[in-house]
Amino acid sequence: MKLIGRILIILGVAWLIVMGMNWLRMQNMLPINPDTARSERFVDGERREGFMRPGRGFGEFGERGERHFEEPSLDGVGDMLGTLVKIGIITGIVVIIDRILRSTSQRMRRSAMFGES
Amino acid sequence: MKMKQNWINFLIDGAMFLAFLIATAPRLSGLTIHEWLSLSLAAAIITHLLLHWTWIISIGKRLFTKTTWRSRLNYLLNALLFVSFTVTIATGILISREALPLLGITMARDRTLEFLHHQASDITVLLLGLHVAIHWSWIMGMLRRIIPVRRASRSVAVSRQMEGANQ
């Protein structure tokens, strides 16, 4: 019973977040709208090979990517590795900063102790 | 008991991380796997939250009173990660082209939602990096239990030194 209650709380909070997002969207308070979304996707498509071939106009955008990743392909390994590298870089930077801060605070503590004695 | 719980957490978190990596590459997995894997990731997130329920409640209760800044930062980061995951999964469900139609539900296509889905997943990658960084020492501790490379090499070096001293 307790477990079901907790699951319902999690789902309830998630539901509230989704409703909030939808409200923001309806009020046009999100920094995106269908026009920006379309232009951004079009630029992205021009840049990325296979996503949308150059030369296809906006009229064909409706069918954007219908087939482009329907079938599994090893071409997408780069996307996965890219995400892994991004996470690795962020983690690495934060871990290094954390270690520097810790060692600095330890040195300050030590110097304060020696200073007192 | 505590160690067993740690292993369960480590295995679930590792599986979730792997699933997330695959889910961020729909060209690799194909759209069907991308959608179903993401839905199972949503279930895994709920499991993850249930496993850490005590921490969520205890830190949540004393978030504005007596707790460390590190815990506060961790709590805030986890809350943001939950929001970004929720937005990513919700928009993913709304723009689904494989999973939902299979269940007989079809939604009108919305480019804003597609764009939001991509933006939210990018933010999730960033927040996940920070989440991993905060738990880095725990992750490394668990990995050292699986691959005790350093300890083994140290013990070999020590035994060699002892052999040299005996000779």
Query: What distance lies between the first and last C-alpha atoms of chain A, to the nearest angstrom?
Result: 59 Å
Percent strand of chain A? under 5%
DSSP helical segment count of chain B: 9
How many individual domains of chain A?
Answer: 2
Mean pLDDT of chain A: 74
Low-confidence stretches of chain B: none
Radius of gyration of chain A: 25 Å
What's the oligomerization state? heterodimer
Q: Give the topology string of chain B: H per helix, E per strand.
A: HHHHHHHHH
Any idea what the radius of gyration of chain B is? 21 Å
Total number of distinct structural domains of chain B: 1
Distance between the termini of chain B: 45 Å
State the helicity of chain A in percent bands: 55-70%
Q: Count the strands of chain B?
A: 0
**Chain-averaged pLDDT of chain B:** 85
What is the makeup of the main sheet of chain B? none
The interface involving the most residues is between: A-B, 47 and 42 residues
Give an account of the 3D structure:
The complex is a heterodimer of chains A (117) and B (167). Chain A has 117 residues and is mostly helical. Chain A has helices at residues 2-26, 34-47, 77-116. The longest helix of chain A has 40 residues, at 77-116. The relative contact order of chain A is 0.04. Chain B has helices at 2-23, 26-29, 31-51, 53-61, 69-94, 99-102, 111-134, 136-146, 149-166. Chain B has one domain (2-134). In chain B, helix 1 (2-23) runs antiparallel to helix 3. Helices cover 83% and strands 0% of the residues of chain B. Chain B is built from nine helices and no strands.
Layout: helices, strands, pairs:
The complex is a heterodimer of chains A (117) and B (167).
Chain A: H1 2-26, H2 34-47, H3 77-116
Chain B: H1 2-23, H2 26-29, H3 31-51, H4 53-61, H5 69-94, H6 99-102, H7 111-134, H8 136-146, H9 149-166
